[in-house]
Amino acid sequence: MASIAFIRRVPKLFKYKTEPHFLKRTFYLYTPEPFHPIPDRHPEWKRAEEAVKVIKSGDKIYIHGAAATPLRLVNCLTKHSLENNLENIEVIHIHTEGPAEFTKPAFEGIIRSNSLFIASNVRQAINEGRADCTPIFLSEIPLLFRRKIVNLDVALISVTLPDEHGYCSLGTSVDCTRAAIENAKYIIALANHNMPRTFGDGLIHQSHIDAMVEEKYVPIPERPQKSLSDAEIEIGRLIAENLVSDGATLQMGIGTIPDAVLCQLFNHRDLGVHTEMFSDGVVDLVDRGAITNAKKVVQTGKIVSSFAVGSKKLYNFMDNNPFVVMSDVSFTNSTAIISQNPKVTAINSCIMVDITGQVVSDSIGTRMYSALPSFLDIEFDGVGGQIDFIRGAALGLDGHGKPIIAMPSTTKKGDSKIVPFITEGSGVTTTRAHVHYIVTEFGIASLFGKTLRQRAYELIKIAHPNHRESLEKSAFERLKCMPAP
């Protein structure tokens, strides 16, 4: 069966006399496009344990991420690899939910994780050298598959049950998964009764799936909203009252700071959403009538996103709702697309900012995160689409875009997040040339067009009062002059 699937996805003209007698060859088998029906082809319904038996040593396996993580298939993969003494399997994924057992020390030499967007469940393995990470913009991950830089043997995905026409939906997470299934030789799908059916790029025909496993009773992963700190509430107020205009197109991720902004936008009008991900806060704004998407240029009238993670309330809102369009991340995160929308307001977070405006979001020293650490109550963010949207907002065709980096002024230990120098080994996610607005609970620093000494002045003003004097001294030592407006 694997060889048939491989033939199906390789755009090569095979002669009829060389084909297996049981395979009905048609024009449609020469394209990897997963939307059209392939005549007389259906997935095999199997138990999860049987479906993963196709996986062998040396395979490259794609795992669907976020709320669509096919946990049952992942569990069976780990069990299958151990029981059959497999080795050198590479699993490729963005952030996944669940414990990620395949990153535990017991799987060294058996399965090695390669994260394209790091989450908390793989950080330890990466920082201990037992797993890999690939620095890449979220918008460019599909290119790895479409340009054959990464060739996948098997894709483990989650879908809805096929409808009356045989179409399944990738549900909450289209992201880079659509590109992955175009590339994979063999597709195993967990058909989850609890997966919301969504519109957009995530509809695929069941005839492109090789094996399908039914999941009736296990819900998809949820992330309930967390309580907000006083600092986060103040950051949300500052952004909502000063930087978000009526008719703005919003991009914001998942976490306490985005939630703090969203919960203070109830009196805004005609807001739009074009983002890489969203959560429950958007639902509340839709219910209040604040989000209409009426002013958007791209997909007017619709929420556009690539993936979503939240509570059952969010998933019920998304299910069979044409107001929400889930798109390929190469579209949602395209700077050229983002910049067409009005008043693009991109709100992202970070780990630290130095006094010249360099932003670090994926690491602390040599320790990789690509997600905000636990002291920010956010388990994933990082490089992802930060630059995609920061740049898209800055280049807004209407000239009213607002690229925003927001963070509490200190860590939970009281250390300043505005620093004289970024920690040695840390990677700069957003350069000082990209930065426009930095926001803490103490104010808004506007850095665009400012000199280095002016930037230091603006950033010291929004630092925690306990750290301003030391930052001023450090700025003088670094810049050889006093920070000044």
Helix content: 25-40%
Unreliable sequence segments? 1-28, 370-382
Whole-number radius of gyration?
Answer: 23 Å
Which strand-content bin applies to the residues? 15-25%
Number of helices: 15
| Oligomeric grouping of the chains | single chain
Class per helix and strand makeup:
alpha/beta
Number of strands: 26
Structural description of this entry:
Helix content is about 25%, strand content about 20%. The chain has 15 helices and 26 strands. The strands form seven sheets. It has an eight-stranded parallel β-sheet with strand order 1-11-8-6-2-3-4-5, with helices on both faces. A six-stranded mixed β-sheet has the order 13-12-18-23-25-26, with helices on both faces. Strands 9-17-15 form a three-stranded parallel β-sheet, with no helix packed on it. The termini are far apart. About 55% of the residues are buried.
Please describe the topology of this protein:
Blueprint: H1 2-9, E1 44-45, H2 48-51, E2 60-63, H3 71-83, E3 89-93, E4 111-115, H4 120-127, E5 132-133, H5 141-146, E6 154-159, E7 167-169, H6 177-183, E8 186-192, E9 199-200, E10 203-205, E11 211-215, H7 230-242, E12 249-252, H8 256-262, E13 272-273, E14 277-278, H9 280-288, E15 303-305, E16 307-308, H10 312-318, E17 324-326, H11 329-332, H12 335-338, E18 344-349, E19 352-354, E20 359-360, E21 363-364, E22 367-368, H13 386-394, E23 402-406, E24 418-419, E25 437-440, E26 443-446, H14 452-461, H15 465-479
Parallel strand pairs: 1-11, 2-3, 2-6, 3-4, 4-5, 6-8, 8-11, 9-17, 12-13, 12-18, 14-16, 15-17, 18-23, 19-24, 23-25
Antiparallel strand pairs: 7-10, 19-20, 21-22, 25-26
Helix pairs in contact: 7-8, 14-15
